[in-house]
Design goal:
This protein is mainly α and 288 residues long. The chain contains ten helices and four strands, in the order αααββααααββααα. Strands 1-2 form a two-stranded antiparallel sheet. It has a two-stranded antiparallel sheet with strand order 3-4. The chain is globular and about 55 Å long.
Length: 288
């Protein structure tokens, strides 16, 4: 159960950190619209309205292309993954730090320098600790940005499409398992990890670790997607509805971890988490 508590803690930190950043970003957008600096909510896809379902379809297309690129990189030269990882950590953590600590230093934001430090720590000191810290902060940034930039309907459609894709990629094509194994050969910020003692032997190892031990890994995408929905809820509903969605996704994740501990096997986490997220949100609408 120790592993479950650690992963749930990581999940909740990501959700509430991202929810705070997303709320601050939404307030910033609304203020910019009020004073005339923006004519409307920024488009995450140029030329496509944030309220249009086309936004979710374009985003899914980008994910398909990105997945194909990563699979090609894994096959040809895995070291390039570190460059991609560094770019993701730097840009997303910069976004988070700028809203957490809105201070300028030498004509640049303090967040810029903090993002540089975090990225360098993760890339040049790749440990489980640096992996988890970088994954939590960057995951919070990506989820907050997506959620604030998408309407609730496109967000729902996007999550449902991704959940179906997650199921297919694990149980049918199984390319997600191959990609996960390649990405977890060393600590990368694409997952969060916690030490774990499985009842049965299963693949979990990290190469070049000073000490060999089993770890349980959760993909950052499985934290980003429910966070995205919770932040998008803020545009139309209240913080209570967002928190209810987070509670639902947390309960679903806890049940998933319990099931995987009883019967270790690769499972698509997103369908479970999506169900819990929507259930929590709907319950909040019924009792509000």
């Amino acid at each position: 159960m120790k592993t479950a508590f650690i992963l749930i803690a990581f999940f909740l930190i990501t959700q509430f950190l991202g929810l705070y950043v997303g709320n601050e970003y939404i307030n910033y957008i609304n203020y910019a619209i009020k004073i005339g600096e923006l004519s409307g909510r920024p488009e995450i896809i140029p030329g496509v309205s944030p309220e249009s379902i086309d936004s979710s379809l374009y985003l899914f297309g980008y994910i398909m292309v990105s997945t194909a690129v990563i699979l090609i990189i894994i096959k040809i030269r895995k070291s390039v993954i570190r460059i991609l990882e560094a770019l993701v950590i730097f840009t997303s953590s910069w976004f988070v730090f700028d809203f957490l600590i809105p201070v300028d230093v030498w004509y640049l934001s303090l967040g810029f320098f903090l993002a540089l430090v975090l990225t360098a720590w993760k890339i040049f000191r790749p440990t489980i600790l640096s992996q988890d810290v970088a994954a939590i902060i960057s995951g919070a940034g990506v989820g907050a940005l997506l959620g604030a930039s998408l309407g609730i309907l496109p967000s729902i459609v996007f999550i449902l499409i991704l959940s179906c894709y997650d199921f297919v990629s694990v149980f049918i094509t199984k390319h997600m398992i191959h990609m996960a194994k390649a990405l977890t050969e060393r600590p990368t910020a694409f997952t969060v990890a916690a030490p774990h003692k499985f009842k049965e032997l299963t693949y979990v190892g990290v190469k070049k670790a000073k000490k060999k031990f089993h770890i349980f890994q959760l993909g950052v995408g499985d934290m980003v997607i429910p966070l995205m929905f919770s932040v998008s809820v803020l545009n139309k509903f209240s913080i209570i509805n967002s928190i209810s969605a987070i509670i639902g996704s947390t309960i679903a994740l806890l049940l998933l971890i319990y099931f995987m501990n009883k019967k270790p096997q690769p499972l698509p986490a997103l369908p479970f988490i999506t169900f819990g997220t929507f259930a929590g949100f709907l319950i909040s609408l019924l009792i509000a």
